[in-house]
Amino acid sequence: MYTSVVRLQNVFGFFTTVAFVVAAFIAASDFLTERAPIVRTLKTTSVQVVRGRPHYYSSKKEEYAVINFSLDADLSSLFTWNTKQVFVYVTAEWPAADHAKTNATNEAVIWDTIITSPSADHLANIGPVAMKKLRKSAGGKSIDPNRGKLSLKNQRHKYKITHPSGKLAMTDNVTLRLHYNVQPWVGLLTWDQDVDYGYWKALKNGVSKRFKLPAIKEKKPASAGAR
Ligand SMILES: *[C@@H]1O[C@H](CO)[C@@H](O)[C@H](O)[C@H]1NC(C)=O
Ligand SMILES: *[C@@H]1O[C@H](CO)[C@@H](O)[C@H](O)[C@H]1NC(C)=O
Ligand SMILES: *[C@@H]1O[C@H](CO)[C@@H](O)[C@H](O)[C@H]1NC(C)=O
């Protein structure tokens, strides 16, 4: 016997099934869109190692590295109609002390940013101006092809590099590496990859040349006799 509750359940079940299938199609469509991110330049412009307190809450003095870098990359192919935002970050990586035995690598984020897709920009800030923009952009515009192009020159680090041992000076074989994380409207988060995967190509040229951290740069005392 059909009651209204059972009927309601059937209708609800039908709509959730439809919604699920549509979402699955949207998520699957990502795999049919080419991703070919490329890095043209990734290099350090200045590297320093300083001994001091890296953060205001640091209780002890330790060595930390500060790196300025230049980055020229084209990540625009990561932006499709299903892209909500792309999280981009640069890490410094170097072999751990016991690398020969364990292959372990030290990794520290030095800079990051979030690039929102044009359609997400309007949702991020609500107000009369944003509403006007939203209406204007609703006129069947495609995705801004400039989105995802990064061109940074002598960019200052956001985060200082530290190591639990407190030692960093003269560290050899350090590389900078660009990473990204694509956050879709529907589907799973995906990260940069080392191998091609169907239409998704590996990030090209995403690692800098090896470099060596310099010796500690002495900080000048603030004034004579202060200490
Ligand atoms: C370290 O990496 C090399 C090359 O990838 C591999 O041959 C070796 O087995 C790895 N060693 C360990 C301990 O994982
Ligand atoms: C690092 O970059 C910042 C901002 O671009 C700049 O002000 C600073 O002088 C740079 N540092 C060095 C050592 O070049
Ligand atoms: C840096 O890498 C080179 C080439 O792989 C290697 O010969 C050298 O021993 C490495 N240096 C350190 C300190 O790991």
What spatial order of strands do you see in the largest sheet?
Answer: 5-2-1-8
- Count of spatially separate domains: 2
Could you tell me which ligands this complex binds, including any ions or cofactors? 2-acetamido-2-deoxy-beta-D-glucopyranose
Please give the count of helices: 4
Strand content: 25-35%
Q: Alpha-carbon distance between the termini? A: 89 Å
Which segments are poorly predicted (pLDDT under 50) over 5 or more consecutive residues? none
Tertiary shape: elongated
SSE class: alpha+beta
**SSE sequence, one letter per element:** HEEEHEHHEEEE
Mean pLDDT level: 84
Query: Helical residue percent?
Result: 10-25%
Describe the largest sheet: 4 strands, mixed
Task: Provide the fold topology.
Elements: H1 4-29, E1 38-52, E2 62-74, E3 83-95, H2 99-102, E4 105-116, H3 118-124, H4 128-137, E5 149-155, E6 175-184, E7 190-191, E8 216-217
Parallel strand pairs: 1-8
Antiparallel strand pairs: 1-2, 2-5, 3-4, 3-6, 6-7
Transmembrane segments: 12-33
Pfam family, one: SPC22
Protein name: Signal peptidase subunit 3
Describe the protein:
It is found in: Endoplasmic reticulum membrane. Pfam families: SPC22 (PF04573). It is a single-pass type II membrane protein. The structure is a single chain. By secondary structure, this protein is α+β, with helices and mostly antiparallel strands. It has two domains: 1-32; 34-184, no CATH class. The protein has four helices and eight strands. It has helices at 4-29, 99-102, 118-124, 128-137; strands spanning 38-52, 62-74, 83-95, 105-116, 149-155, 175-184, 190-191, 216-217. It has a four-stranded mixed beta sheet with strand order 5-2-1-8, with no helix packed on it. The chain has a four-stranded antiparallel beta sheet with strand order 4-3-6-7. The longest helix has 26 residues, at 4-29. It starts with a helix and ends in a 10-residue tail after the last strand. The model has no long low-confidence stretch (mean pLDDT 84).
